[in-house]
Structure formats: C-alpha cells, structure tokens
Fold this sequence. Notes:
Distance between the termini of chain A: 11 Å
Shape of chain A: globular
Largest sheet of chain B: 7 strands, mixed
CATH class of the domain at 89-263 in chain A: Mainly Alpha
Radius of gyration of chain B: 25 Å
Distance between the termini of chain B: 60 Å
Helix content of chain B: 25-40%
Strand content of chain B: 15-25%
CATH architecture of the domain at 263-470 in chain B: Roll
CATH superfamily of the domain at 263-470 in chain B: Dipeptide-binding Protein, Domain 3
Number of strands of chain A: 0
CATH architecture of the domain at 89-263 in chain A: Orthogonal Bundle
Largest interface: A-B, 70 and 62 residues
Strand order of the largest sheet of chain B: 8-9-10-1-11-19-12
Largest sheet of chain A: none
Number of helices of chain B: 14
Structural class of chain A: mainly alpha
CATH topology of the domain at 263-470 in chain B: Dipeptide-binding Protein, domain 3
Shape of chain B: globular
Oligomer: heterodimer
Number of helices of chain A: 13
CATH topology of the domain at 89-263 in chain A: MetI-like fold
CATH superfamily of the domain at 89-263 in chain A: MetI-like
Amino acid sequence: MKTVLKKLASFIITVLLVTLFVFLAFELIPGDAATFRLGTNATPEALERLREELGLNRPFFVRYFTWLYSFFFGDMGQSLSYGVSVRSMLASKLPITITLTLMSFVMIVALSVPLGVLTSKYEDRMWARSLDALGQVTMSIPPFFLGIIIMYVFGMIIHAFTPGGFVSWQTDPVRFIGYMFFPSVAIALPKAAMSAKLLRTSILSERKLDYVRTAYSRGNSTMDVLYRHVLKNAIIPVITFLGMTLADTVAGSLVIEQVFSIPGFGRLLISSISNRDYPVVQSIIAIIAMIVIVINLIVDIMYRFMDPRMRERS
Amino acid sequence: MSKMIKMLALCAVTAVALSACSGGKPDASSSITIGIPQDLEDSLDPHEAVAAGTKEILFNIYEGLLKPDETGNLVPAVASNYTISEDGKTYSFTLRDDVKFHNGQPVTAEDVKYSIEKSAGMTGAQSLISAFSNIEKVEIKDEKTVDIVLTEPDIDFPAYVANLNASIIPADNKDPKTKPVGTGPYMYVSRSPQENIILKKFDEYWGEGANITDITLKVIPNADSIVMNLNGGSVDMFARLTSTQTQQLSKNFNILEGEMNLVQAVYLNHAVEPFDNVDVCRALSYAVDVQNILDLTSDGKGFPVGSSMFPSFAKYYVDLTDTYPTDIKKAKELLASAGYPDGFSFSITVPSNYQPHIEAAQVVVEQLKKIGVTADIKLVEWNSWLSDVYSGRQYEATLIGVDASSLTASAMLDRFRSDADNNFTNYSNKEYDDLCAKVRAESSDEERTKIYKDMEKNLADNAANIYIQDMAEFVALSDKYEGYVFYPMYVQDFAKLKLKGQ
C-alpha cells in the first residue's frame, strides 16, 4: 500500500513539474497565439483584443492553474488555432502514435530475444560473430536516418509501399497497419540490435557462474540449463533496458512520423509549438509524460514478478 | 517463450505482406490529391484568415461581392454589378439572382450586410482590411440591392470588396471558424488536423463551376518528403516548389512556371544605424548582384525587381532594375563617403521556415564581403519573426518576400509611408509621404498610376531596400490533369483543374 501511494505521489509530481516547465517555456519564447493568428495584419489594438478573447492576457499562474484544473477533470480545453476541442484532436492522433510505438516494441522483442540467445549459444560460429558485428553497425544508425534509407529503398526503388501514402485507421485499418510497418522497422532495428547485444553479453557472463557448472554436473542438458536457469537470470537487465526502450520508442515515434509523413502526435506537437497553441502542446506533453511514467511502473512490477529478490526486499 | 517468439515473427511477416499490397490508390476518376506545405491553422473564417497559405485555399470556398480573375481584373461574383454615386461615397451592389450558399440557402441582402459589417469589424473583432474603417454604414435598399456608404471617397474600394477577407457568408452561420459555408465552387467537407482537408464540388454553383469532384488537400510540412510524395504517387499536385525540387521529379509530372507575385528584398530598418544613411543603403544595393543570386539559388529563374512592385502588376510596374548596376568600386566609395571606409557588420534576420529566402541571404552575405561589410544570418522561427521583426521592428535587416494583400498598388506601396501601421522598415521620407497624400486625394486613375510610379522611383532612388526579385513559382501537376492557371496574386484556383480530355 505504501509503495502504491509513493508511486502515485511521484506520478503526480512528475506531471505537475513537466507541465509547469512547458508553460514556463512558452512564457519565455517570443510571440503567442495572437501574434500567430494575426500574422502581418497585427496591430496593437487587434492583438490586445484577440488576447482578451483567447484569455492570453491573464496572469501566468491563473492561466496555468485554470488549465491544470480542467485537465485534471479530463477537459483539455480548445485548440487556439483549430477552434475545436483538444480532446477530439488527440483522440484521432493517439492511436497512430500508440500503434507505431507498440509495433516497433513488438519487433524489438521479437528480434532481439532469439538473436541474443542464438548468438550467445553459438558464440564461436562465424555467422554468430558476423551477426554481432552487423548489430554493432545497426545500433549506431540513428532511426531518422534509417527511416530515410528505408523510405528510399523500399518506397522508391522496390515500391513495397507508397511514400507518404498514409491511410488513417478510420478509413482502412489494414492499410493503416501496413503503412506503419516500415516506420516501425526504422525505430525497432537499432534498439533491437542493442537489446540483442545486451542479452548476449548477459547470457555469456551468467554462463561462467558456479550455478551453471553445478547444473551441468547434475546432468542437465545444455538446452535445459540455458532456458531454465541462465536465461531467467540473464533476462533481468534486458527487461530494464526494454522498459527504458519502450519509453524511448514513444519519443522516437515522434521523430519517425516526420520522416514518413505520418500525421500523429509528433507533427501535431511541432506545429502546435510554432503556432503557440499551448492547450494542445500541454496536453500532448502531459499525456506522453503519463505514458512514460506508467511504462516505468509496469517495468517495476514486472521486476518483482521476475526476480524474487526484489519481492523480498520490499 | 519460443512459441510466443514464433507468433511474433509470424505477425511481422504478415505485416510485410499486408504493406506490400497497400501500394497504389484508387484510380483518380474525378478526384485529385493536392499537397500543401502547411495546414490551415489561423482560421477557416474568411474574415479572420491571415496566412497567405490559408487564404489561397479558402479562395475556392468563399467569394466576395466581386472577385479577381486570372488576369487581375475584378469580376462580379455574388453581386452581378455595382454603381458608384457621383460623390464617390456610395457603392450600390445588385445581387446576382441565383447565388446559393453551400447549405442550399439563397444569398440574401441580409447575409451581405451581415458579412460586410462583420468583415469591417463593426460587429466584433478588428477588421483585417484597414481600408474598411472608411465604411460608414451598410444599407439594405431592397431584396436585391445593398448600398455601402463610405466616409471618404475611395477609388480602390472595389478591390477591397474583392478581398477574401470580405467574403459573403450566411448571417445565421454559427461557427464559420470550424464549419465554413460559402458560395464558392468547392465546399468544405471535413478535416483532420495536420493530415488533410477534404473539399467537394458545389453542384449548385452559380457560374461555370468546378471540373473535378473531390479534392483532398494533404498536409506535407516536411520539405524533404514532398518530392517522395509526388514521385511515389500519393500526391498529384504541389505548388510553389523550388527549382531543385522540380529537377528530382519523375517524368509523370508537368512543371508549370509562373511568378510568385511578391517582392523579395533585404528589407532595411531605417531607424537603426547605419541604415539611416542613404549612401550606405545605396552602397549595399551596388554591391548586391541580383543575377548572381538567381543563378546560384534557382538556376537563373526569377524576375529581378528594382522597387516595391512586381512585374505582373503591369499597370503600375516601372522597370527600375538598372538603378544600381553591380559596381563594387562605387559601392566602396559611397561607404567611405558615408563614414564607413572599413565597412561595418550587421545581421540579416530570416524566417527559418522558407528555404529560398535563406539561400538568397547566404549569397547576399558572400557578395557584401567584397565591400568589407560583414553580415551574419540570424534564423528565427516564423512567430518570432512576426513579433520581433514585423510588429516589434527590433532588427537591422531582414530578407523576406512582401506580397499584396489586395489588388491595389497601395497594398504594396502604402507601407513605406512614415506613419503607416505596417511600415516595419521605418522608412521615412518627406517626399514619399507627400506622394501618399497626393494619391489619396487624386481621383483620376491615370494621375494616380503616375503618382504610384513616382513612389516606386522614390523607393529605388533612396535604396529603401536591397531589391532582389519576384520569385519564379514552380507547380508540379501530374500529367493526368491539366488546366492550372496562375493568378497575379497569391491564389490557387482549383475549379479550373480538370482531367486530361475532360
């Protein structure tokens, strides 16, 4: 119970701090939604009038707490540039970012676990070594660059997909998932390479430990030792890494969206920052912060589940 | 565990298979996908729309009493004709009989009165057409006649009525900002922020109407993705490409070439040193080689200008491009006589969202080095540019394109009047102010044109800005379509587009 309360408190404090910082940043950068809306037609009187209308001329803390208060009750306010509710805007974009994140995460796990196990099991074979070297190269490629290469090779040369041919999930869920495949690969590959390497190193160092020798001397088969004993222990650091990766993937998807012309959270966030549309930016940041915190929470729980030592400690 | 891995691997394979068949799109029977570089983010309400990129799209949805045609003349739209009273103060518009709004209701005199009053800021927000502060009242004479009474006569008034910001909308329209209803050839269907805007042909349009039934405007903010989108076949048309982008396009596209209808220049802030000294401004103009800029940034395409007027506005345009032929020696002499024999340094503020301006600025910086002037480029975000440079006037020089907000010469020239609200260059010249006063009092069209030309000469003689060019505009249109027309102003007319052979 105490742990839950502690977690909840840190959850609330993090969201509070993050949103306050974003609000402060908006205060510091030049221009506001009124200067953007009026553009080159701005006169001091017109600006004043629009600020009044949009509620931008209220004091800083009044605006922040008004926003916070309504956000707490699920009301994200109205977009200053689109004039529609932020909730409806985000509702149509959230599935895009979540799909992208989950698809790439599934790929990371699906690729890295078998690769990690195989390359460590056959560590002396030539192909395992080459795979390891290839992984080394892959993990050093930034996802946006990998995205550009994939877009060029699979989109422009092989024609496996239409670059920019994004279809929204409401129109056609199957083609939507299909279009998300290559962007997910771009996010997943470098992370999968890292996680495979981590698993490999972890397995190799576990295998040198005394309990493995004991297991062998007891007459257990190689497979049995590897899966029942070594992997169980070796996977714990990998889970920590995957937890961090999942949070990272949310951020990575914002970047990859730009490369593949996917109109998700990333593009909305960038345009809303340049329009000074603070209700939208605040809500997106708060939601992303919450997603990251929840993921960390899940990793924590998984830890306790996987590692009995953690359970005993608390 | 291994079972799960197998399943995941299977999922991945299925996804590849699915994406492989997600290629092409349904055959474009009577639809077109047009790429736009930014979403319509300011407002869909014609009386609130500010960004050029928004207004050029709304041009297809809304109409005013009058509207511009592709030659730059004003033609009747919602009104069928108008008369001017003898004192020049009352404009009497007769409404066309068969004009309907997209919601099916006929346009009434009440709608016109409501729209003009809303647009003029008489019922709420500030007007975006400053000349509309001249409107004294709008009167309904009868069902088909509306009089607009002015405080002072204004010969340019019809041009303001034709401005998109003076469009006619229904008086009972609750939410024009999110549910636009107009009288134009296309009606608004739906939008998804940062993704697309869907338009549909309006079948009950009073005029010739559109050819293509469905239009999807697809938002592609990332300049690098534009060419991929075009070549990949997900976009059929894109306007305002750079010449580098057009060279990367496949053979399936026709490249049309026109003008942007703006004046690209290094605009100088005359309130700061040393640009308060006319010799310094002239020296800079002598040092800048316009043809060299064109050659390096756009393969020599573009239309050099010598003052604040672009060539396609033929009636008012005077060719002043030879006022400052490139002459380094003369530039150095002028600098020396102005008290800067060793040059000086300043920064050129450039909005970061528009690559052609950045490239032009880079060439200018190199050219100015030859006379010992060190310029550095300060890239700022568009909103910072608006608040610091345009409204705040806190800058030394800025490279940008200035376009005409309405089809009048004063839209280009009035901003250099010393007390003009939008005089962001702080240009202050007694002779120029006198010309402005004179043109306002003048009623003969011929005389006015002459005075406007004198104003252009004044700007050129005093090197008000380092004038560069009206930029070439490139439009890529898939060879399945034809009929794109260029306007002498910032407008995209989708109604003229059609399928080949349609």
